[in-house]
Design a protein that fits this description.
Layout: H1 23-68, H2 81-87, E1 101-106, E2 109-114, H3 118-126, E3 128-130, E4 137-140, E5 146-149, H4 165-196, H5 202-237, E6 242-247, E7 250-260, E8 265-270, E9 291-296, E10 302-311, E11 321-323, E12 335-337, E13 343-347, E14 355-359, H6 360-366
Antiparallel strand pairs: 1-2, 3-4, 4-5, 5-8, 6-7, 7-8, 9-10, 10-11, 11-14, 12-13, 13-14
Helix pairs in contact: 4-5
Length: 371
Amino acid sequence: MKCPKCGYDSLNEISCSHCGIIFQKYATQEFRKRQLEDERLDRRDRLKRQWITIGVVTSIVLLLTGFFLLPDDTPDDSLSADQTSQDRKQPRFMVPGIGPGYWTQDGTQLKWVSTPGETRLNNVRDSTFNFGLGIDKGFIITNECHAIINSDLSKRKASKGTGPLKQDKVYLDILLDSRDEAKAIYEEHRKKFISNCKDCSKKAFDNSMYQYASKLKEIERKISQAQAKLDQSKEYQEHNDVVWAHTHYGRLKVRQVEHSVKLGLSLVMLDREYCENIPRGDPASLTPGEPVFTLQGHKAVDLLGGEYLGISKTGKSSNYIKHNIKVRKADQGFPLLDRDGNVIGITIESNSGKSVAIPIDMALRELKLLI
């Protein structure tokens, strides 16, 4: 009788002389496993249908709620300047599902403040990137893959951890140790099989050793990939002005073109022929109180809103853009956007309650990039 577990042709009809299982008990356990799996799939399908129903009902309720909360767009000439200023403050509540934006409230009046559309926001997020370590951020400003970053690449070396070389070496060493362990386990089971079953067929041997051979083969495949990646890292380590950026297009090498000590910004080129860029806006076209936005988080997924407050006239930040968005140190270097999603400045960490951004036109002049 052929064993259902190891495939060995056993003369004993009750148990396997090779792996020792009892056929009837093994069949009962397998049947119970299939039964439990069918029950689990049924429960999952029921839960899935329930959640779909809840989601549809919730969406309908939110859409109806938003419809009845639509504001009256007729201008009210009786509003004072103070009331108009209050109108532009951060939202007290939000009504999702109607469109990009949020409601603000002043007394009995509601006002809808538009934000960049979801398509434009996704484009902005895809055009930002980081270096994986520290607080260095950047965003793409031209289709030729020029980007502005808030660091000086000439002070960074790929061999000091900004590139993947160190990580690739550690990963390859781990894989080599795993291969040695897998080889030892394979050899141990091979000897045990030969000693216990000297007259067994090659098929029985292959079936018995399949899992150990498969694991060893998978580790060898990963070693080959890790070695190729390490070779690539070694090649780029030779160039001191090259580091790696984690972008929407994958991991790309970055070459510095220009650096401004005054602004602490650099103009770089990404190793790619074409890039989606963030369109450039004009800060001079904004009036105080208009909404502005920036991004937050390691992958730039969160949108922060605030107000444009004008141009700073004094101090070290003279001619910088003033706004009221609190920018953390980890998020400085992200673009400051107008309501249409165009970049008007580059954010700086908020200090002493003051938030400013470097105007994009000033940055382009300092970095000698003509657009």
